[in-house]
Design a protein that fits this description.
Helix content: under 10%
Strand content: over 45%
Number of helices: 0
Number of strands: 20
Order of helices and strands: EEEEEEEEEEEEEEEEEEEE
Amino acid sequence: MRKKILGLLIAFGLSIPAFATITVSPTRLEINANKIRNNYVSTALEVRGRSDQPTRYKAYAGYFTINDNATMNMADNNPDNPHDISKKIRFVPSEFTVPPGKTQKVRVNIVDIKNLPDGESRAILFLEDVQPKETNIPNAYGISAQLVLKTRIGVPVYVDKGNFKKTAEIESFNVVSAKDGQYTEVKILSKGNSKIRYAGKVQIVSGKKLLHEYPIEGNVVGAGKTYVAKQKIETENIKEAGEYTLRYMFTYFDENNNKKTIKKDATIQIKSEKI
């Protein structure tokens, strides 16, 4: 018996090394509509296809939200949602063929900008290969199958307009223990009407002496959302057991592109068996 299974590989701003037939640059678009004089925004994507054969793609737009896990939720296009700009997007061309090893520039036009509400509006720009790829799946229990695979890549686009705010707050900062070590547990609140994109670093300090420093695993927190970030504390470089200061240095950029830093301290106990 032979079966065909239809699958769809999706990447948001990332290529998929094993199966991808497409890479796109840039991997996201962030637009301040207050700096736009016209009633539209025009930008472009550069699409690179397969190196061994021509590939045909189509471009279309969808809508997404950012959930409390700081990941995308695909949502139905809703004409009553004023922050859904997927219907305002035009692609030139909307379907095209990329020769082997070449690139294709796709113009992206976002219209009717002046009627957008205050805050952040969003869409995701999909580029999808038109011809599905087929790959055989090893026999199992006397059944052979063929996977019919379509690949698409998604480029998120954010448009900020009017009175938009990017404001973050650390509601709590704790050190929690697990079987494999200690973790920072940080409750982050995005208080404005536009997402925040954060980064930063963690420092382990003894008195005024910096003993170790490593980067925060950055992420995006949607407008009005709360996100709990957990990350393992790196203590391998601490040579003596004892009590230390753990300093969490959280950074993001506000609506005026000014860098903001929030510092939080906690006490951490490092035991001798962990060094």
